């Protein structure tokens, strides 16, 4: 009796009439597990093809934290690249050193790479910078934990990708992540900065975001359907106020007006590219130079990571 009720309440898949697991609000389609998986993978494939972000001969390093987004990214890329032996795939996991929080995801990252047969490189903050995030944060001069962690993680990923011989560094940013960052840039009102982000930087290993067209909700559901979801404690340092407010605004708009996030990003991307084009015509290079200390791209004499490390050393 209970079972019948449950089945009766489930909408059939728009494409095959099997019980649906998802309502994709922006298309209005109910999808079964198989069709949902296929639709997410097609979205990623279209992003990859439209932007030409993965080319023959590329070595793609996936920044794999072991959380759901990066796990989904590695999983989907390993499937999409199955028939492209001319593209190499590897994973880089950064262990920031956050006691009581990172252990489970580190384990998940190891298990996933072993399952998929993808080579994994693990680098700890301690290896890269001499101290764990926890230890850095003991310093009273340390900035906001998320800022420090983000800057050092990006640096460690970049260095590890270069050392591993990668030609592209792929991160698991979803459509929502991109839209939040875009909204924050708009709210900060620095148009020059927005334009600058449209100029291909001179990072040694260019970054790509193959999940950039997939809404966060779909990334999460994909992780659940494929058994990649790991319920996680919240990071003990979490809480960037502006970003979490940006997230609420975007998810509220998307809920009330499905498709808004994608439209916003299409508009934002066009603006950014036009802005970048104008800057380039003026002969600007995005303001990037090389860091005097480490040689990575910087906007001043020192890159962000080296400046932060220096400020913590001087203390
Ligand atoms: Zn179906
Ligand atoms: Zn530097």
Structure description:
The strands form 3 sheets. A 5-stranded parallel sheet has the order 5-4-3-6-7, with helices on both faces. A two-stranded antiparallel sheet has the order 1-2. The protein has 315 residues and is of the alpha/beta class. The relative contact order is 0.13. It has helices at residues 2-9, 33-51, 68-80, 103-116, 125-129, 133-136, 145-163, 175-188, 191-197, 216-225, 241-256, 260-281, 304-314; strands at 22-24, 29-31, 59-63, 88-95, 119-124, 168-170, 207-208, 289-290, 297-298. It has one domain: HUPs (Rossmann fold, 3-Layer(aba) Sandwich), CATH 3.40.50. Residues 1-7 have low confidence and may be disordered. 51% of the residues lie in helices and 11% in strands. The chain is globular and about 65 Å long. The structure holds zinc ion (ZN) (2 copies). Residues 13, 15-16, 18, 31-32, 34-35 line the site of one zinc ion.
The residue ranges in which pLDDT falls below 50 over 5 or more consecutive positions are: 1-7
Q: Round the mean pLDDT to the nearest integer and report it.
A: 88
Secondary-structure element order, N to C: HEEHEHEHEHHHEHHEHHHEEH
Rounded to an integer in angstroms, the radius of gyration calculated over CA atoms is 21 Å
Describe the global form.
globular
Q: What small-molecule ligands were found?
A: zinc ion
Query: How many helical elements?
Result: 13
Strand content: 5-15%
Give me the side-by-side strand order of the main sheet. 5-4-3-6-7
- Please give the largest β-sheet: 5 strands, parallel
CATH level-4 homologous superfamily: HUPs
Residues in helices, as a percent range: 40-55%
CATH architecture assignment name: 3-Layer(aba) Sandwich
Overall structural class, as computed from helix and strand content, comes to alpha/beta
């Amino acid at each position: 009796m209970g079972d019948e009720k449950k089945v009766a309440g489930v909408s059939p898949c728009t494409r095959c009439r099997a019980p649906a697991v998802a309502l994709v609000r922006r298309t209005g389609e109910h999808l079964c597990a198989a069709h949902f998986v296929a639709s997410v993978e097609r979205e990623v494939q279209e992003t990859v093809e439209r932007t030409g972000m993965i080319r023959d001969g590329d070595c793609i390093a996936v920044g794999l934290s072991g959380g759901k987004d990066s796990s989904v990214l590695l999983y989907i890329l390993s499937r999409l690249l199955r028939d492209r032996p001319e593209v190499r795939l590897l994973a880089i996991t950064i262990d920031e050193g956050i006691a009581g929080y990172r252990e489970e995801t580190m384990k998940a990252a190891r298990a996933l790479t072993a399952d998929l047969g993808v080579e994994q490189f693990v680098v700890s903050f301690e290896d890269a910078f001499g101290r764990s995030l926890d230890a850095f944060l003991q310093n009273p001069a340390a900035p906001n934990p998320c800022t420090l962690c983000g800057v050092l993680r990006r640096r460690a990923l970049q260095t590890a990708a270069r050392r591993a011989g990668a030609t592209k560094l792929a991160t698991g940013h979803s459509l929502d992540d991109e839209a939040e960052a875009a909204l924050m840039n708009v709210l900060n009102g620095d148009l020059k900065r927005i334009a600058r982000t449209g100029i291909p930087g001179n990072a040694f290993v260019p970054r790509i975001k193959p999940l950039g067209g997939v809404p966060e909700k779909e990334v999460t559901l994909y992780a659940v359907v494929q058994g990649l979801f790991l319920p996680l404690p919240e990071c003990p340092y979490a809480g960037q106020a502006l970003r979490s407010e940006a997230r609420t605004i975007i998810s509220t708009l998307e809920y009330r007006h499905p498709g808004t996030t994608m439209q916003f990003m299409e508009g934002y991307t066009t603006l950014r590219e036009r802005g970048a084009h104008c800057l380039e015509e003026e002969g600007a290079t995005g303001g990037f130079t090389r860091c005097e200390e480490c040689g990575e791209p910087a906007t001043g004499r020192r890159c962000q990571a080296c400046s932060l490390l220096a400020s913590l050393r001087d203390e």
